[in-house]
Amino acid sequence: MNGGKGMYWDKWIGYFSGVSQPETHHMGIGAFLLNPAGEVVWQAHQTTGKGTKELANYLALLMVVSEAATHHQARRLTLLGDFGPVIAQVNGEQVLENQSEIEVAKQVWTIMHNFDICSVKRVSLNENRDAIELAKSSFAKVNSEFELQKSAVQALQEVNFAGSLQLNSK
Question: What strand order describes the sheet that includes 26-34?
Fold first, then answer.
């Protein structure tokens, strides 16, 4: 017997991923939620400022666990991500030391305790590729703005260099 969405016997699955660009340290997060029938009922991606890959993964995890709890009233939830350190920390298998990550982890744990069953498990990069692509897609605008900024700086440097050449030749 299936009582419909959000009932205690229904198992929801959330995938999450966070990335951080090496050059700019901008973070991108992506996540999606499957209902018990296996249908994608929600997906999101966004940039979240600057930080580490660890913090980005915590923010992605917070985004999907919040969505499942708030908008879908899921009672049983399995959260799947590919970044081992964050999963080990959330499961209490590894010590968390970064203060920013601790603050987000506290929020995640608080929400997780509201579920009847909630677990966080590691999956392969291949199994998590859709969440990874969502996280990366959040960079489209940031990358174009960064490239424009780099181009403007480079043009300014070229103008300054050309101007100094003219001054030196007089």
Answer: 40-50, 26-34, 11-20, 76-81, 117-122
The answer to whether residue 5 sits within a structural domain is no
Task: Tell me: do 97 and 156 sit in the same domain.
Answer: no
| Global pTM value | 0.78
The residues, any chain, with a CB within 8 Å of residue 75's CB and separated by 6 or more, are 6, 7, 8, 10, 115, 116, 117
Read off the pLDDT of residues 104-145 as tens digits, 9 standing for 90 and up.
999 999 999 999 999 999 999 999 999 999 999 887 755 555
Closest Cα partner for 101 from 47, 49, 59, 50? 59
Q: What are φ and ψ of residue 143, in 5° steps?
A: -60, -45
Same domain? 63 vs 147: no
* pLDDT at 49 exceeding the cut of 50: yes
Q: Token pair of 120, please?
A: 């966080």
Q: pLDDT by residue (tens digit) across 7-47?
A: 445 799 999 999 998 888 899 999 999 999 999 999 999 99
Q: How far apart are CA 112 and CA 41, in angstroms?
A: 19
Q: Which residues contact 89 (CB under 8 A, 6 or more apart)?
A: 95, 96, 101, 105
Task: Supply the range of the domain harboring residue 148.
Answer: 140-170
